[in-house]
Amino acid sequence: MKTPNDPVDHARTTRPHAGESMKDTKNMPGLIVIGVSLVLFVSALAAHATNHHSVGIGLGSGSAVLLLIGGGWLLAEHMRVRKIEERWYAEHPDAERQQPSRQRSR
């Protein structure tokens, strides 16, 4: 079962990372920053549409910076979760390691 100290669900699913971005609350600042980035991006589009190009460039630049920050945050948190998962598997050598799901070709 997922806990704040171990966000990987080892027992109840064959997809231990399903819902990781919503269950692991340490991801929330990154998701919020990405949300603000999207608002700035839409604002930049509106500024360009109304011929306020200098404002649009500023908002677009801010949007790009926040998107990189939010993406970096999510990447760092995912790596932290992977490290916790690896430590759990090292402590439970008899547990079967679940592989990430992949799309099958038809």
From TrEMBL:
UniProt entry keywords in alphabetical sequence: Membrane, Transmembrane, Transmembrane helix
Coiled coil: none
Comp. bias regions, Basic and acidic residues: 7-26
InterPro entries: UsfY-like
Cell membrane as UniProt keyword: no
Stretches for region Disordered: 1-26
Regions that span the bilayer: 30-49, 55-76
Entries under NCBIfam families matching the protein: UsfY
Protein name: UsfY protein
Protein species of origin: Mycolicibacterium flavescens
Classification of source organism: Bacteria, Bacillati, Actinomycetota, Actinomycetes, Mycobacteriales
